[in-house]
């Protein structure tokens, strides 16, 4: 499994993903799931993927090779697509192409065509945007009302985001909250694990301010996990026991 | 949807369930999902259910009417079943009977035979036990290593239980932690909602010490929700922002 979260903020964009891939519990490996296309100052696009690894890798390869669009004479890639909306459409077309190629055979083997992607970024002169693309190639977009999107094992880490992440949250507070959300997920689900990849992009810069892999033993993340754990313990210990009558 | 949790402790048993049932988001109703059979001092059995309401209600009706067991001449019910293990087998047989009756028709309508149940309790002279029964009628049991079991929308509220609930946790602390887990679930999933039903049974008493419905506006639960919310906010605010270099 996988857990990835993207947050669209007034200040910019945060993307965070784990790297664990498993085919059964006895076949666990590390694969990068957060892919960056950067032309600093001009355009920076981040794509995070979850689902069946063969499907997500094929979709990525197809996007890198380029796909003809409805109005394009030459293949579109993240290097030349004119807007983030069209970048999301490009990803959607790649997902549909791979579904046409692999979907029926997967079904013959009782396997779901399982893929979801987060696409965030900005092209110079256009808006910073964050999309979630589904297995059918359709997509939704984050808005100031609902500034975060999640793919993969999203439920364990959703409560903390629901409570604390808003459109005007500081960009590094949003990264911190995403890391707390990832910590809760990793503690409750072995299929999500270190290392983590994170990216931070300030609005209207079209370049990554942060593009980091967080390895096991990272001092800040270790400290965050232990502080959060201690604070949660103090939090529930600080609440009185239920006073309900023995009725 | 539903969220129910059962905790087996050194001191006894805690069961907590919500009451929201929905068929689509435009058809929401309140149904009791925590069912108690009590002969004080002799036997007390609690059954919590999640899944398709028609299936869970049919299973409950069948158990109440009684079912012949492999070694019994008269119908078995919770009133006469000789052990908690045989009570779990009785529930499993009822689930399988309803599957035989309804399973194929549900499948014709592309509906899953969706049911899961928690069965906890004690019969005088026997052990206090807690089981989770699956749609196939098979079941697992909580043990001191893994003292809690959940059914329904279990992921949102699992991290806090993973961190804090142990076999030797105080029984009312376990109820408090179950309520915190329920709060996280209710905040992140509209399909889980108030009122809540909870039961507390001390080991070797075979009677409920607490059997309570928590309604909207309950002062303790309101206070717990607000304290937990404030403590979480203080907890993440107390963690420094990531110091990562802008590399």
Structural description of this entry:
In chain A, the strands form 3 sheets. The first copy, chain A, has a 5-stranded antiparallel beta sheet with strand order 10-1-2-11-12, with helices on one face. A 5-stranded antiparallel beta sheet of chain A has the order 5-6-7-8-9. A two-stranded antiparallel sheet of chain A has the order 3-4. Chain A is globular. Chain A has 5 helices and 12 strands. By secondary structure, chain A is α+β, with helices and mostly antiparallel strands. Chain A has one domain (3-234): Aminohydrolase, N-terminal nucleophile (Ntn) domain (Glutamine Phosphoribosylpyrophosphate, subunit 1, domain 1). The mean pLDDT of chain A is 95. In chain A, helix 4 crosses helix 5. Chain A has helices spanning 53-65, 84-108, 158-164, 171-188, 219-237; strands spanning 3-8, 12-17, 20-22, 28-30, 34-39, 43-51, 115-123, 129-133, 139-141, 148-152, 196-202, 208-214. In chain A, strand 1 (3-8) and strand 2 form a beta hairpin. The interface between A and B is large, with 49 and 49 residues.
